[in-house]
Amino acid sequence: MHLHNSASERLEPVRTVDGVARLYVCGITPYDATHLGHAATYLAFDTLGRALRQSGVEVDYAQNITDVDDPLFERANATNVDWQELAQEQTDLFRSDMAALRVIPPDSYVRVQDVLVEPADAVGRLVERDLGYAVPTPDADGDDIYFDLAAVEASGLYEPGFVSHFAPERLAEAFVEFGGDPDREGKRSTFDPLLWRAARPEEPSWPSPVGRGRPGWHVECAIIATGALGEHVSIQAGGRDLRFPHHEMSAAHASGLTGKPFADHYAHAGLIAYEGTKMSKSLGNLVLVSKLVAAGHDPAAIRLAVLSHHYREDWEWFDGELDAAAARLDTWRAAAARSEPSPEHAPVQRLREAIADDLDTPAAIRLVDEWAAQERPSAAMRTAVDALLGIRL
Ligand code: 5CA
Ligand code: ZN
To answer: For residues 118, 123, 126 and 132, what is the CA-based torsion angle, rounded to 10 degrees?
Structure first.
């Protein structure tokens, strides 16, 4: 299985750690409806997991739920609902969408609130090693703690842009866009990320060796990933919006704690837009899997429509695509119905090869189209499409 690595900017074989492909995919922040864009990212890495398992590689897949973070608390406050209820409701919706799409659930599915003591302790250890430092915080009883990026950089385990390859201006922009505070007084350097936010009135908080508060976003993922999969993971994955700061900072935190590089591979899916504009809550143009299913669309057609785009591309969803996917599915199902056992394994082998080549699902789909056009299609393809593409014919 070869996969593009954002860090090296090359196609590289997926490596295992102690014989197991250890895959971490950043999960949802459960404060608002997850849309087809999120689903596309999870479908991409579901395809990866399926391909690895089919090739005989053991996979250990962990995903987090970012239920301790600003957007969720802000939304809960603004709408006057309990943050835990909001998170639960949105997580349940997300899971039912994933089940409808036949996404294989992760082996570890970890809510931040359930493991909070772990990032709390990790921040304590980072402060002991002077990789974490307090910044004066007049509006709280304790101090906010930041991470000293330069210290990890000095040990050769971090370099700004090592995943994103962004130029300095773009790093600065993305840092702010994702909640960073470059100008905060008392920070050792501009991009040092928040490790621990001291408790403020009315905000949920937990005890820690550095006082009450809550962890920063990046350290949550660093600790959940290494806690579930071990100190070194095969792949850190997510949508391409997470390249910087999130994946670089998570990796830097993990490396600060372990003294090792974090991941062999950094894999990123493209971002999905809707008929010409970015899918966004404020624009009200979210395409929701649950709504498409409720309107009577076959989830397999939704899955097929998404997989007909290459995972690394940014693309736009057009409603018409669903009809095209449904028509293709009908053709495939008709072929499956007349398929027969056959000693001919080459088409299935080509399907495997297409997916093993950086998850080239568009090429895989063309191969299934060719199979479906045959008068006497081989039944083996039906099984392969089920296993590799997650589509039951
Ligand atoms: N909880 C964090 C990650 S730790 C988070 O980014 N949550 S999220 O709910 O905003 O996004 C969930 C996943 O979907 C992330 O991997 C993100 O990169 C991806 N994603 C977000 N928007 C899109 C989009 N428009 N198209 C494709 N993937 C997207
Ligand atoms: Zn994450």
So the answer is: 160
- In this structure, which ligand is nearest to the CA of 70? 1
Q: How confident is the model at residue 329 (pLDDT cuts 50, 70, 90)?
A: very high
pLDDT at 190: 96
Q: Name the residue of 38, 112, 218, 310 whose CB sits within 8 Å of the most ligand 1 atoms, as the mutation to test its pocket.
A: 38
Q: Which ligand is located closest to the Cα atom of residue 242?
A: 1
Q: 119 CB less than 6 Å from ligand 1?
A: no
* pLDDT, tens digit, 9 for 90 and up, residues 78-133: 999 999 999 999 999 999 999 999 999 999 999 999 999 999 999 999 999 999 99
Q: Is the pLDDT of residue 274 over 90?
A: no
Rounded to a whole number, what is the largest CA-CA distance in the chain? Answer: 76
Query: SS3 breakdown of the chain: % helix, strand, coil, rounded to 5?
Result: 45, 20, 35
pLDDT digits (tens, 9 = 90+) for 286-314: 889 999 999 999 999 999 999 999 999 99
Q: Domain 274-389 - what CATH class?
A: mainly alpha
29 pocket-lining for ligand 1 (C-beta < 6 Å): yes
Provide the residue ranges of all domains of the chain, joining segments of one domain with +: 2-269, 274-389
Q: Tell me the CA–centroid distance for residue 284 and ligand 2, in Å.
A: 25
Span from the CA of 373 to the centroid of ligand 1 (angstroms)? 37
Are the CB atoms for 352 and 1 separated by under 8 Å?
no
Under 8 Å between Cβ of 381 and 348: yes
**Does 2-269 carry CATH code 3.40.50.620?**
yes
Q: Across all residues in the chain, what is the average pLDDT?
A: 96
